[in-house]
Task: inverse folding
């Protein structure tokens, strides 16, 4: 699919939404393809970190709703099936057992904003603009926004972002905690690659288990969390990565993790 490009540099994959003429709006077929790519990358041992970005000057303007029917007697079931594709794509990214990084410049609005928030880290250029723009299109929030936003910014701020649908600057997004870093446009590629390389050098199995536990943290009880930590740590101790970390500490060098 020409609208989605997948490239690889060593153990870092980059997924680029490639429709710059429409600010990288995502069609229904593209949601299917993104889901397939995210699932595949999650299984690949040669990939340690994944960068999500958009071609040209923008990250993503959300779902392409230009072909949506406005008829009151339109195909309701068909629209529900379309939304299931959106949801499945969101889950495949959120649950991917790799470190994911959103590289954001220009607009990240609607499903495009929530696509970025589904990633583990968000790095934005100073010109980036964010919006839960759904209400201005007569729509309710989707692509996990109702789940992600309250956990990141708190309930009241989440309501403000969704119900008013204002466009906010990168600096304001950073103040709210929506981004991890805001850098100048000419520093964006370097910063994202720096973080991707750092993540890719970590112990992949341990990072995947830690990510899964953090993703469940708001629905778990403390007992659930402790049980999962115990199980995950037991698995970690069976890997050669732990032995490598201890050996590297003794030899005063950086560990070289291989995931086994």
Result:
């Amino acid at each position: 699919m020409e609208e989605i490009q997948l490239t690889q540099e060593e153990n870092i994959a980059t997924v680029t939404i490639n429709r710059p003429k429409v600010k990288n709006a995502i069609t229904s077929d593209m949601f299917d393809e993104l889901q397939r790519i995210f699932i595949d990358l999650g299984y690949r041992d040669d990939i340690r970190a994944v960068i999500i970005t958009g071609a040209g000057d923008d990250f993503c303007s959300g779902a392409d709703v230009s072909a949506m029917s406005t008829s009151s007697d339109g195909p309701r079931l068909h629209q529900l099936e379309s939304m299931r594709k959106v949801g499945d794509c969101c889950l495949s990214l959120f649950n991917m057992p790799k470190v994911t990084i959103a590289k954001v410049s220009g607009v990240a609005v609607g499903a495009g904003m929530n696509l970025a928030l589904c990633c583990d880290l968000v790095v934005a250029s100073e010109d980036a603009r964010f919006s839960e723009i759904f209400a201005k299109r007569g729509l309710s929030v989707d692509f996990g926004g109702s789940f992600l936003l309250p956990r990141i910014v708190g309930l009241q701020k989440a309501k403000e972002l969704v119900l008013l649908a204002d466009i906010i600057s990168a600096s304001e997004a950073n103040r709210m905690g929506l981004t991890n870093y805001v850098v100048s446009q000419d520093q964006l590629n370097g910063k994202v690659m720096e973080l991707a390389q750092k993540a890719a050098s970590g112990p992949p199995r341990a990072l995947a288990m830690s990510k899964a536990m953090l993703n469940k943290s708001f629905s778990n009880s403390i007992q659930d969390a402790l049980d999962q930590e115990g199980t995950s740590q037991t698995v970690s101790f069976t890997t050669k990565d732990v032995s490598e970390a201890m050996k590297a500490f003794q030899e005063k060098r950086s560990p070289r993790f291989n995931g086994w």
